[in-house]
Specification:
Blueprint lengths: L2 H30 L3 H26 L3 H41 L1
Helix pairs in contact: 1-2, 2-3
């Protein structure tokens, strides 16, 4: 094994560990908040970092099927974040409408 290959193997070992730590930090942000928009962004970041971890593992383990799993995970993550944003916008619109209704009657 050449020096370059050894360096890549070390990089492919260290980067997923760092990303896993960052996923944990994003999970804390998703739980803590303070706003719903922060939580949605944290969930999106968690999905993105998970995809990167899967892609790195696909290269490190030389398994092509992990790339397919990564693509499927990307689609599911996109749909989940889109759904969360849609629900958030609906809740926000309802809240805004209710506030306008209350302010208009007083």
């Amino acid at each position: 094994m050449t020096l370059l290959e050894t360096g890549y193997q070390g990089l492919f070992t260290v980067v997923p560990i760092i990303l896993a730590f960052m996923v944990i930090l994003c999970l804390v942000r998703a739980i803590k908040g303070p706003r719903i928009a922060d939580r949605i962004v944290a969930v999106n970041m968690m999905g993105t970092m998970t995809m990167v971890i899967i892609a790195i593992l696909a290269i490190k383990m030389e398994e092509g099927y992990l790339v397919d799993i990564c693509i499927i995970y990307a689609m599911i993550s996109f749909l989940a974040v889109t759904l969360l944003a849609k629900v958030y916008m609906g809740v926000y619109a309802e809240k805004k409408k209710k506030e306008e209704k209350e302010n208009g009657h007083t």
